[in-house]
Queue: 2 jobs
Job 1
Amino acid sequence: MKAVRVSLEESESVRQKLISRSALDKTRKLVKKNGFIEIPITGYFNADEFTLVVQEKTEYYSKEKTISSILNIPEIEKKLLPRGWQILGDIIIIALNEKLEHRKTEVGEALLSLYPRCKTVLLDRGISGQKREPLREIIAGNGTETILKENGCFFKLDTMRIMFSQGNLAEKKRMSELGEDETVVDMFAGIGYFSIPMAVHSKPKKIISIEINPVSFGYLKENIALNKVGNVIEPIAGDCTKVTPCEMADRVIMGYLNGHEYLPHGISALLPGGILHYHEAVPEAIKQRPVERILEASKEQGRSAKIIGMHRIKKYAPGVWHVVVDAMVD
Ligand SMILES: C[S@@+](CC[C@H](N)C(=O)[O-])C[C@H]1O[C@@H](n2cnc3c(N)ncnc32)[C@H](O)[C@@H]1O
C-alpha cells in the first residue's frame, strides 16, 4: 500500500494538500516510522513532488464494521443486503434488492462511512442499449467523475454515464501483451478499455479506436492524453460500420457482445494473415455459434478463417457466457 513520507512538521499541510486532491486514503491510519510520518494515499495518485513509500505494515480504521452492523434496520431487511459492490476510483456502485429501495439513502450513507476515501454511492439498475449506458442514481454523496488505475493505466470516466467492467480484467491484460509493432483496429473502443493498455504496454505502430457514444468518445480522448499515448492511438468518433478502414489491420478487436452483424466490417479490415478477437454472449447449448459466424462471414468475403483460440471471459447470464474467439483470417 502506498504512502507519502513527510517530516512531522509538514505532515498536516501535506495531509490537507492530499485531501484537496482527493488523494488521501481515509481508510488507513497515518503511521509514525523512523521519525517520519507516512500518510496513506490512494493507488492512482501521481505524487512526483513527494517521497513515495510502500508501507510494510498498514493500519486500517474500523476494520470490523460492515454495512449490516452500521445500519439500524430490521433483521429481515439486513438479510437482503448485498454482500458485494463495485468500487471505481472513489465511487461505490451497488445494486439493491427492490425490497430495500426505501432504505437506499441509509445504505448509501453507511457505505460512505465504511469507505471514507469514497465520495459518492450510486444505485445501479443495469445497462441499456447499443451504447451500453448504465441506469444509475446517486444515493449518497456527490460527484460521479473519477479516475481509476488498472494494469498500470489510468481511466477517467463519469460512472453515472459510462460502464466499466472489471470482470474482464484477464482479457484486458491479455490484450495489453499483444500488438507490438502492429496496426490494430479497436471497433468498439469505449473509453479505451483495450486500446489504452495495448498502447501503454505493447507499443503498436498504430491503434485506430472507434467509438459511437459521444460521452465515451470524450473520455477516450482524455484517457489517451492521461496515458500519454497520443502518438499510438488515433481516435475516431462514429459508427464502425461506416468508418472501419479496409484491409489495413494486423489485428482487429471486436469487444461488443452483440457484434455479429459487424463481423463483415471486422473481417474486411484485416490484412491477409491478420488476427480477429471476436466477443459474443453465447448460450451454453450453442457454444459453437461464434465460431460458425466467423467462418461463415469470412467465406462470404471469399476469405478463409482458422480458429486459433477461444476463451470464456465471464458468466453473462444464467447459462450464457461472454466468450472471445481468436481467428486468423487469410
Ligand atoms: C461494451 S462497450 C466496450 C466494452 C469494453 N470492451 C469492455 O470490455 O468493457 C462497447 C462499446 O461499443 C460502442 N459501440 C456500440 N456500437 C457501436 C458502433 N456501431 N460503432 C462504434 N462503437 C459502437 C458502445 O458505445 C460502447 O462504448
Note: The CA atoms of residues 2 and 43 lie 7 Å apart.
Job 2
Amino acid sequence: MSSLILTVGERLEETHDVTSWRLLPAAGATLPPVQAGQCITVHCELDGEPVSRAYTLSSAPQDPYWQITIKEVGRVSAHLRQHLQVGDSLTVNGPFGEFVARQGRAPLLLSAGSGITPMWAMARTALAQDANADIRFIHSARSEQDVIFARDLSELALQHPGFRLVTVLEQSAPEHPWQGRLSAGMLRELAPDLLSRDVYLCGPAPYMAAVAAMLAELGLPAEQLLLESFGQPEPAAEVSSEAHFWFDLAKRGKRVKILPGQTLLAAAEAAGESIPFACRVGVCGACKVTVFGEVECQSTVSLTSAEIAAGVVLACACTARSDIRAEL
Ligand SMILES: Cc1cc2nc3c(=O)[nH]c(=O)nc-3n(C[C@H](O)[C@H](O)[C@H](O)COP(=O)(O)OP(=O)(O)OC[C@H]3O[C@@H](n4cnc5c(N)ncnc54)[C@H](O)[C@@H]3O)c2cc1C
Ligand code: FES
C-alpha cells in the first residue's frame, strides 16, 4: 500500500498528556475510505532512525480530515507531542484493521485511557447514521482530568438519549457515582442487557484482560466480544532454554534462537536484530517477511492470498514450529 503525505491542519490539547492532530490531504486530493475503528501507521524519524507506530483514527468517516489522538507514553508519542505542529507534513499508511462496528446487535463500548479513540469514532458514526442509536458506553480513566473528549462526550449524550455514557474514575472523586476499577458488579448494573449486545473492548493490557474475564464470567459468548489491543510488552524470553529452534536471517548471515511461542519479531530483537514494525499486533503489515519452514500465524489480516501462498508472514504475529529461514 502506498504512503500518503498529509498536512497537520489543527492540533488540539485534549488532556495534560494527550494531543489530537487533524490531518488533511493535499489540495485537490481526497482521503481513502475508512471505517470507524480502523487505524493508520504514522512514520517519522527519531535520532536519524525511521520509526513507525499505529494510531487509531479518532475521527469519524464523515469528517473531512483524519484525526489521531495520542497519549504520551514513550519515544514516538513524546516526539510527536513535542514536535508535530500545524503546517507540518506527516507520512502515513492505511487505513487498516478489523476492529469495526458489526451490523445487528446494539453495541456496548468499553474502553480505558487512550483506548477511547476507536469508541469515539464508532459512537459518532453510529449516531450520525441514526440519531436514536442504542449505544452503551462505559469509559474508565484515572481521574476526571484524564477523560479524553470529556466535553464532546457529554454533549453527545445530551443530544442523543440513546447514547448512555458512564465514566468510571479510578482515583477518588467526590460526588462521582462510579469510582474504582470497573468490576463485574458495575458491569451488571450499568449494562444489565449486556448479553444481548456486541461488546467492543479497548484499553491497556491489564484492563482488557480483567474485563474480558468478567465478561466471560457474566456469560457473554466469545463471538460477541471484539477486542483491539494497542500492544503490550512481550514477556521476556529465556533464550538460553534448551527447547528452541534456529531462525536464519539469510541476507544478514545471522542465525538466532527462537523459542516455541516467541514471535519472529521478538526473537530477532532479543538477538539485537531489527525488523521494521509499527503495530506489533498483526494489524498493519509493516513487518511482512518471507519465511521458509514450519510456522504458525496468529494473524494474516493484512496479507493477500498470493502473499500467504508465497510464504509471507507477519513477523509480529508468527511463531516457529521448526527451524526457519527468512528473507532478511
Ligand atoms: C492498532 C493500534 C492502535 C493504536 N491506537 C492508539 C491511539 O489511538 N492512541 C494512542 O495513544 N496509542 C495508540 N496505539 C499505541 C501506539 O501505537 C504506540 O504503541 C504508543 O504511542 C507508544 O509508542 P511510543 O513509541 O511512544 O512508546 P514505546 O517507547 O514504544 O513504548 C513505551 C511503553 O508504553 C506502552 N504503551 C504502548 N501504548 C500505550 C498506551 N496507549 N497507553 C499506555 N501505555 C502504552 C508500551 O507497552 C511500552 O511499554 C495503538 C496501537 C495499536 C497497535
Ligand atoms: S508490526 Fe504491524 S503487522 Fe506486524
Note: Helices lie at 75-83, 116-129, 150-159, 184-190, 205-217, 264-270, 305-309.
